[in-house]
């Protein structure tokens, strides 16, 4: 299913993967903070976690462009990455 060369798959992969990484990191930090009371859940800022989630798209993009040579899927991933990066710049840098 994930070995198709189309834009929609790329947009879905590029849109979902940063969200999954972001929420997984938030859950892990909150879990660790509940175990060790000395840690505070705001140990790492939300903007940093969002940036890590966006960064993960680079690895997915590289896999589809270099290993599989699926240009359309790679372009969809890149489009979703640019949308997330634009949101990040607007939300956190443009204040």
What does this molecule look like?
This protein is mainly alpha-helical. The chain has one domain. It contains 3 helices and no strands. The protein has helices spanning about 5-35, 45-65, 70-95. α1 packs across α3 and α2 packs antiparallel against α3. The protein is elongated.
Give a summary of the structure in a few sentences.
With 95 residues, the protein is mainly alpha-helical. The protein has three helices and no strands.
Mean pLDDT: 93
Helix content: over 70%
Q: What's the N-to-C terminus distance?
A: 41 Å
Order of helices and strands: HHH
Discrete helix count: 3
| Beta-strand content bin | under 5%
User: Based on the structure, what is the oligomeric state of the protein chains?
Assistant: single chain
Total domains, how many? 1
Spatial extent as radius of gyration: 16 Å
Largest sheet: none
Question: Structural class, please?
Answer: mainly alpha
Unreliable spans: none
Number of beta-strand segments: 0
Tell me, what's the shape?
elongated
Secondary-structure blueprint:
Layout: H1 7-35, H2 46-67, H3 71-93
Helix pairs in contact: 1-2, 1-3, 2-3
Considering the chains and any ligands shown, give keywords for the structure.
single chain; 95 residues; 78% helix; elongated
């Amino acid at each position: 299913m994930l070995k198709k060369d189309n834009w929609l798959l790329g947009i879905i992969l590029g849109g979902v993967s940063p969200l999954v990484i972001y929420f997984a990191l938030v859950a892990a930090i909150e879990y660790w903070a509940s175990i060790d009371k000395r840690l505070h859940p705001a140990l790492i800022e939300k903007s940093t976690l969002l940036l890590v989630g966006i960064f993960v798209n680079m690895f997915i993009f590289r896999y589809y462009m270099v290993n599989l040579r699926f240009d359309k899927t790679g372009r969809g991933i890149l489009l979703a990455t640019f949308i997330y990066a634009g949101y990040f710049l607007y939300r956190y840098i443009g204040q």
